[in-house]
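User: Can you help me understand a structure? I only have the sequence.
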Amino acid sequence: MTVRSCICSVISRSYVPFAQVLVDSIHEHHDDVDILICVIDGSIEDAPAGSIGISSTELLGPDGLEDVLYRYTRQPLVVAGKGPILQTALRRGYDRAVFLDVDILVLDRLDALLDPGAPAILLTPHLVAPLTAGPGAHRGEAAARELDILLHGVNNGGCISVRNSDTAWAFLNWFTSRLRTACLLDREQGLHYDQTWLDFAMTMFDDVELLRDPTYNVAYWNLPERPVRSGGRWEVD
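Assistant: Let's start by predicting it. Here is the structure, written out as tokens:
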């Protein structure tokens, strides 16, 4: 049986050029994966070339769209679409759906995220090992860096993979409902948009796994521990 997989994202119109780079980088390594893009303040025609446009009405429904448009500015509006775009992909019959933030560049295959046998919910943590202070740095620097991650959420909301299953649907229904009303940057409430909500996934739902592969989720917050080299191809660690 053929397993249908897709990669999806939600953007605003001003981020279409970013999305085009993401789409092109995915196609460079995967020619058999559909890419679904919702331009939440635009139309299907605004989606980048090489992707399948998803309307904001299909994503959120007419009532839900009006609710979040009234409630949020651009960034939380886009972030609040993460759960719904994954739900939309599963409703369209995909067996595996992966959400990627639009500021991601794909430099190799994403087989671990697209694996049909992967857990129902697959998350990517920001850190996969204790941080280091670095040569000449104050000894408290590593702890300070880790504390900063704690305040922002330990998992990266920019990379979420789900399998079409009851468990994933239960997670997405909960995740979507929280983001519809509380997708905010509010330190006093312990909120960093979607990411602090994701901290609950491991305790609330079954069949959840962290992808602790250092070649995924490489970014400025963990780059000192994941040296990147280029020797004909990009390599991490």
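Now, to help you interpret it: The chain has a mean pLDDT of 89. The chain has nine helices and eleven strands. Let me know which part you'd like to focus on.
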